[in-house]
Amino acid sequence: MRAPHYARLRLAHPHIANMESPHEHQQSLLLSRIIVNVEKLNEAIMMLNKNLQEINIQNMDTELVSQMFKNYQSNVLFHLEATNGLKDPA
């Protein structure tokens, strides 16, 4: 199997031995773009997590009020049944 043309060129001309593969530059650019995009994605996910955490904190109050109302409703029903105050709907 023959060496790629750029490898043969390096062997034939030692003064250009530090010349990189034609694909290395393109791969380097692609990797740079991937890294930048992953960093942006990480920032977006961190912001999403922060916002979800704030939403969960806000929902805690709603959940508490809901539980209080449910308990109140249960207590009212118990009291009405205990005092025979619960009447069938007319």
TrEMBL record:
Q: Mind listing the UniProt keywords for this protein, alphabetically?
A: Cell cycle, Cell division, Centromere, Chromosome, Cytoplasm, Cytoskeleton, Kinetochore, Microtubule, Mitosis, Nucleus
Q: What is this protein called?
A: DASH complex subunit DAD4
Which cellular component appears as one GO term in the record? DASH complex
Assign the protein's first listed, main location to one coarse class.
nucleus
Family to which the UniProt record says this protein belongs: Belongs to the DASH complex DAD4 family.
Where is this chain's protein located in or outside the cell? Chromosome, Centromere, Kinetochore; Cytoplasm, Cytoskeleton, Spindle; Nucleus
- InterPro entries (alphabetical): DASH_Dad4
The processes (GO biological process) annotated in the record are: attachment of spindle microtubules to kinetochore; cell division
Q: Which PANTHER family match?
A: DASH COMPLEX SUBUNIT DAD4
Q: Does the keyword Cytoplasm apply?
A: yes
